[in-house]
Amino acid sequence: MGTVYYKTELGQQELVARSGQVPPKARQLLIMIDGHRSFEDLAALMPGAGDVLRMLEQLKLIAPQGAESTPAAVVHGLYDQLPPPRRLLLVRQIVLQVAGEFLGKGWESKLDERFAALRDGPGLEALVEDWLTALRRSGHRGAADAGQRAVAGALKRAGH
Predict the structure, then answer these.
(1) Distances (CA, A) of 81 to 48, 93, 100, 125, 132
(2) What residues form DSSP beta bridges with 63?
(3) Record's superkingdom (predicted)?
């Protein structure tokens, strides 16, 4: 097995704080780094992962297992795990309503299918990131910002 990476304290903080300094592809890979997946596993999940891993390592957001420091204590974020069913339903309603209004039925249907297939918190985070990116790219930054606040509020009320 190849090199296994873990999130440093800075990496954990980046996931919670969303500084905006980490590009979306790098953020997606940072989410997938769990201290168990090897370089090869990550490379299979994302084309170009080697370059992204090097960038994350240079930013001190990740480090290889066995490096001088030890993994940071986990900073619990909004997407560590799926929220309770009632909160997940609220998040789903927010996302689908905004998608239907600003992105159209195609996006609403696609997101609804992804909600049905959700298994974990990082999956929910990836879904929300894709939804927000689509909103912003289609010129609906205000709707994305309001939707992001509504989803975060629903998840925070869930005790995450």
Answers:
(1) 27, 18, 26, 10, 20
(2) 6
(3) Bacteria
**Residue appearing with tokens 């910002």:** 145
DSSP string, 14-34: HHHH--S-S-HHHHHHHHH--
pLDDT 10s digits, 29-47:
888 888 888 888 888 888 7
Half-sphere exposure of 11 (CA within 13 A, CB side): 29
What is the model's pTM? Answer: 0.54
Sign of CA dihedral 116, 90, 150, 156: negative
- The values of phi and psi at residue 109, to 5°, are -65, -45
Tell me the torsion sign for CA atoms 64, 67, 70, 72: negative
Cα Rg of the chain, angstroms? 16
